[in-house]
Amino acid sequence: MSAPWFVLTRLARDRSALVGLLLIALLVVCALAAPFLATHPDDVFELHPAERLRAPSGAHWLGTDRMGADVYSRLLFGARITIVIGLIAVGASLVLGVPIGLVAGYYHGWFSDLLMRVSDIFLAVPQVVLAIAIAQTLGPSLPNVILALSVTYWPWFARVVYAETRALQKEVFVESTAALGASAWRLTVLHVLPNIASPIIVRASIGMGFTILTAAALGFLGLGPPPPTPEWGRTIAESREFLPDAWWYAAAPGLAIFLTVMGFNLLGDGLRDVLDPRLRRSRTARDG
Amino acid sequence: MAELLAVRGLRVDFVTDRGPAQVLDGINLDIAPGEVVGLVGESGCGKTTLARAILGILPATAARIRGGEVRFKGTDLLREDPRVVNDHVRGRAITFIPQDPFTSFSPVFSVGTQIMDLMKWKSPLAGSRPAALFGRYPRDRRRADHDAVLETLRAVQMPEPARTLRRLPHEFSGGQRQRLMIAMALLPRPELIIADEPTTALDVTIQAQILRTLRALVKERGVSVLFTTHDLGTAHEVCDRVVVMYAGQEMEAAPTEAFFRRPAHPYTRRLLDSVPGPSGELRDIPGEVPSLVAPPPGCRFHPRCDYATAECRLDRPAARLLAAGHGVRCHHPVDGESTRETGARGVSARAEP
Amino acid sequence: MSAASVSVGAASAASVSVPLLEVVDLVRHFPVRNAFGRRVGWLRAVDGVSLAVAPGETLGLVGESGCGKSTLGKTVMGIYTPSAGDIRFAGREIGRLARRERRAVAKDLQYVYQDPGASLDPRWKVGRSLHEPLRIHTRLSRGEREREVRAILTAVGLPDAHLDLYPHELSGGQQRRVGLARILTLRPRLVILDEPTSGLDVSVQASVLKLFRSLQQTFALTYVFISHDLSVVRAMCARIAVMYLGKIVEIGDTTAIFERPRHPYTQSLLDAVPLIGARRISQDFRLEGEPPNPRDVPSGCRFRTRCPLVQERCAREEPALRVVDGRAVACHFA
């Protein structure tokens, strides 16, 4: 596939996608450089009850929470958790969903239908509800949240891959490579998969946003990683009883979640526009 | 003799991401009343663009008319009021038969509905008032139009015309749909029909029937036809005169007999030679069709031409009249009979298309 | 019946006795389903075809749309499985092989689509696409494969530099050559060409046909040439088979058939082809109507609904292929 540079330059022309990209970049920087950017890095664990619920000031840029910890610093470390949850959950969904989609798409018959019906069942239930049920059963912890999210998101990948595989099967190059004697493995992994990489990438980006939002919901309901982990959703839950006075306590993580999810969605939309139609155009022959 | 259609110096560019493609480079074309003119050429030569330019249906965003005129009965269609052209010329005085019979009908309406819709707007009885969207369709006119439709369907040899009108397009084969398109092209009583490769998508036996029907009808009604095709045999079948184009330039125009027997332009000769002959000898043309974004200067065929000289690279040749109605744009037209193989004579002498 | 046509077929070809490809009473039907998925009939695309192809020859398969020539090609190739009948390649039955064994036959029996350029994966460089058949079928080292690939590339008239390009960076004609090269890396013995010049300009067509000829020489290929274009078939094929609605109606030496067609359909088909330089054929052309739907094949002789010679016998009895005037014809009155 042509260079990522090509994609980036094209992406840069789409203003909303650019905004998305910048927001994600911001998130990544915050997560990676949290120890350096935080004003009170120890506040993730330490308690300063004397300073609880202070409004934003020069010392505490976004105020303090009910334990007296610096909201801003905890936010930055919370970004790490957010990214970890997102990446692993989406990654696991991908690893599970893509092969299922490939197999179901390549073969015809009862087995493919079965796989797709199973994925339909998962899709029929709202992701949040299913994730809640799973996390509730297994108990609140970071790994359980990730598990719950992966299990509910894989059908989206499976479905996209299934549809694209079926569509690609009709392409002449797939049929002719099969006629050359290529095995199923070669066809799906070496030919089909690279050609459907774009929709998978787009789905992954949008999936990140969706998954992070659901993770925050789980955290809010107390089903996420236990305190003192500075997970954004849990922070919002904690802030409830202090509203509307300690507005910064809820606003900060709320805004962070909002910007992150929007960032991934904008990026995903931009990628969808850039990757599919243009590459298709550059792929077609120039008639000589 | 006044020409029905006279195209002079038509220049059209298409916008591409590599720059403007000079698709038509100063085309001259004449069509006399009642004449069937064939426009032949290979892909990219511009024949479809020319047909569309005459009709005025070039894509507005991509195409730019850079110059020239299209005179229909004396009026330049390019500079006339577009509404007048739309109401009185397009679909009425000049009608169109498209190439692909399978996508030219709307699949959700019956054939009768679609043809009567056409008649509502473009019937010869509609008079010269501009058509209004919610205008009346007087019953007596509708009846007269309906009769005309049935009569024309019979003329194009559609079995059971009344039943045909009730059916949906997908119930008809490609050949039958083309007959319907011919009927629709004839109903407004046009003076010129532009047929864009109408038989390319059809089988050869069906094509033979369609060509016969088309030629008989237009001759009977004195309608002119501009018939584009890339198949020389088809041009020979149905046309009185043939014009050949290459890379956006017209190269030669001659009556059919002269065109095929005594082609003067080197490209025409090469083209006729490349049709496979019965002996199996294959002659192709070295080189490739040039890009229209950066076309060769002067005569665009010169890079592939055996007779090219410096003059050919500098100036596009002006039209030269070799014999009655036989014009060629070449600095070195070739003399003498075509060297193409001729088939054996006889009952089933199917030597070549 | 089939034995007669097969022997007539093979006898008039080159001097060999064992045909490279033999098809015996091949049938391929497609189920026709209604809106509920229930089968309501059969589309009889190939309905009992027998022919033989000798090594080194070029057999033409001609007919109009719906005659089954493309389906025949794809069934022989294994893209469709036969509903009935035998396919024998170099003496070995291949129509009913298991998938893995059938894939191995691809080394010797190949199929070229109408646009060979479209057979290239758009995301793979040309070199990689050309290596692929060798990777699938042989155990050659990379260096050996590279040598093979370069040799083939030269044989189709392309420079080595193209190995590093993507298909969309080549012109249409170059893509076509690469597509052909890919198939030739396997050194197949028989190649089925399915409408290889359809839609091409006549001068481009001439170059493509010349290429096919030279490749046939270089690689000692046998061709089955499927086309609806009679002039092309006449130039390229020494023997032709004319198909109508799933069956062969006439098969034999090309020149003989073109000069003296015996079957009424062949006569009409040849009459329909416009002839430059002679009088217009369409004035005299007599064949009316359209071919019947392959879902609804007429009883007896399937051409009887449009045949000028039709008699009562034609509805009752389907004519068998019999030898007349040096070729095989399926007509009661030939």
Structure annotation, total helices of chain A: 12
Spell the H/E element sequence of chain A: HHHHHHHHHHHH
- CATH fold name of chain A, please? MetI-like fold
What is the H level of CATH, i.e. the homologous superfamily of chain A? MetI-like
N-to-C span of chain A: 24 Å
The overall pLDDT average of chain A reads 85
Briefly note the structural class of the backbone of chain A: mainly alpha
CATH architecture of chain A: Orthogonal Bundle
Largest sheet: number of strands, sense, barrel closure of chain B: 8 strands, mixed
Integer count of domains of chain B: 2
Uncertain parts of chain A: 280-288
CATH class category name of chain A: Mainly Alpha
Please state the oligomeric state of the protein chains shown.
heterotrimer
CATH class of the largest domain in chain B: Alpha Beta
Instruction: Note the main sheet of chain A.
Output: none
Total strands of chain A: 0
Tally of structural domains of chain A: 1
Descriptive overview:
The complex is a heterotrimer of chains A (288), B (353) and C (334). With 288 residues, chain A is mainly α. The longest helix of chain A has 37 residues. Helix content of chain A is 73%, strand content 0%. With 353 residues, chain B is α/β, with parallel strands linked by helices. Chain B has an 8-stranded mixed sheet with strand order 6-7-8-3-9-10-12-11, with helices on both faces. Chain B folds into 2 domains: 240 residues, P-loop containing nucleotide triphosphate hydrolases (Rossmann fold, 3-Layer(aba) Sandwich), CATH 3.40.50.300; 82 residues, no CATH class. Helices cover 31% and strands 22% of the residues of chain B. In chain B, helix 3 packs across helix 4, helix 4 packs across helix 6 and helix 6 runs parallel beside helix 7. Chain C is α/β, with parallel strands linked by helices and 334 residues long. Chain C has a single domain, classed as Rossmann fold, CATH 3.40.50.300. In chain C, the strands form 2 sheets. Chain C has an 8-stranded mixed sheet with strand order 6-7-8-3-9-10-12-11, with helices on both faces. In chain C, strands 2-1-4-5 form a 4-stranded antiparallel sheet. In chain C, helix 4 runs parallel beside helix 6 and helix 5 crosses helix 6. The radius of gyration of chain C is 21 Å and the shape is globular. The N terminus of chain C is likely disordered. Classes of the chains: A mainly alpha (288), B alpha/beta (353), C alpha/beta (334). Chains B and C meet through helix 7, helix 8 and helix 10 of B and helix 7, helix 8 and helix 10 of C.
